[in-house]
Each structure stands twice: as C-alpha cells, then as structure tokens.
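STRUCTURE:
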C-alpha cells in the first residue's frame, strides 16, 4: 500500500535535479558537471549512474525540472498580483519583467537563463529546451483574449525572454530601465 510519500530513491533523484537545475541556470549547460552537481546534492559521484545514463540525460532532465520550478514560482507571483486586481496577462508581464526576476538567475526562467545556448546542444537537450519554450508560449497564449493568434503569443513570449536577458546583461539601473520600457510597452499594447 502506497502512502504517497516519495521513496529514498525518488528523494535522491529530486536532490540531484535541484542541484543540476541550479547549476545550469547559474553556469549554463557546460556548468553542470556530474561531479559538481553530485557534490552540491550531497552525494558521491559514483551514485550518479543509478539515476541517469549520461550527463546529457541529466541536463535535459534538469531543464524540465527547472522549468517546472520556475513555472510554479511564476504562478504563485502571478496569483498574488491577480488578488490585487491585475489581469492575468498583466500579472505575467509584471512578474516576468521584475527586478526580482532579473536578479534571480538561479531560480528564474530557464528559457531566459539558457536561451542563447540551446541551439548548440545535443538533440536530447534541445528537445527539452523546445518543450520549455513551447510551454512559455502556451502560457502567454492561455492569458490572451479568445481569438488571439499564436504569432501574438510567441511575440510576447519572445519579448519577455529577450528583455529579461538584456536586463541581466546590463544590470543595475540600465537593466531596470530595459525591464520598465518593455513592461510598459507590452502592458499598453496587450494587457489593458
């Protein structure tokens, strides 16, 4: 009889994915070495192959895991803004293009953290990355008025990711100005 509690193996797997998700956000695909991820998870290097067949499989899984984590965090922040009266799309734009998200590379959107690296990875990793990009576009699409098209959703998602990446590069006041300009333009055009 199952109690719903995760078993030790599942909890260990989750720790590895947590460490790998943080590593790829912090240092990119190449920054997620097996030895460092296992050390960060508090495990020995030898236990890795009980959970993954390869580093590539770990990174692909970590992208999905990081996406799930950031989606849950994004949803909590959006819910808080909606309780204060923001429309669903406004809540997304204000949350995604926030200073907290700009400064939160290790816990933020994995698409923005890894975007420029994704096309140079193996097919397994690119497939995982594509799923995250599609999930972001789908989220935007679900918040647009009925009858809105995919092109509009992909434009908004691309603007969110690009603005966040540029703001992170610039940092400080310049980065905040990029966030503010993009937030204002998107809200004026789409979020009423």
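SEQUENCE:
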């Amino acid at each position: 009889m199952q109690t719903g509690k995760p078993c030790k193996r599942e909890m260990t797997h989750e720790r590895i994915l947590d460490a790998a998700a943080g590593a790829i956000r912090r240092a990119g695909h190449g920054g997620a070495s097996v030895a460092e991820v296992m050390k960060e998870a508090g495990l020995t290097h030898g236990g890795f192959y009980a959970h993954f067949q390869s580093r590539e499989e770990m990174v692909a899984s970590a992208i999905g895991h990081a996406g799930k984590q950031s989606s849950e965090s994004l949803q909590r922040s959006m819910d808080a803004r909606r309780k204060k009266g923001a429309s669903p799309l406004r809540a997304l734009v204000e949350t995604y293009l926030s200073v907290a998200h700009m400064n939160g590379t290790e816990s933020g959107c994995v698409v923005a953290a890894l975007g420029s690296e994704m096309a140079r990875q193996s097919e397994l990793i690119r497939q995982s990355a594509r799923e995250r990009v599609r999930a972001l576009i789908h989220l935007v699409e679900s918040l647009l008025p009925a009858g809105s098209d995919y092109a509009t959703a992909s434009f908004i998602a691309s603007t969110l990711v690009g603005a966040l990446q540029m703001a992170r590069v610039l940092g400080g006041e310049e980065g905040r100005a990029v966030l503010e300009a993009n937030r204002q333009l998107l809200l004026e055009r789409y979020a009423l």
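REMARK: Residues 163 and 179 are 6 Å apart (CA to CA).
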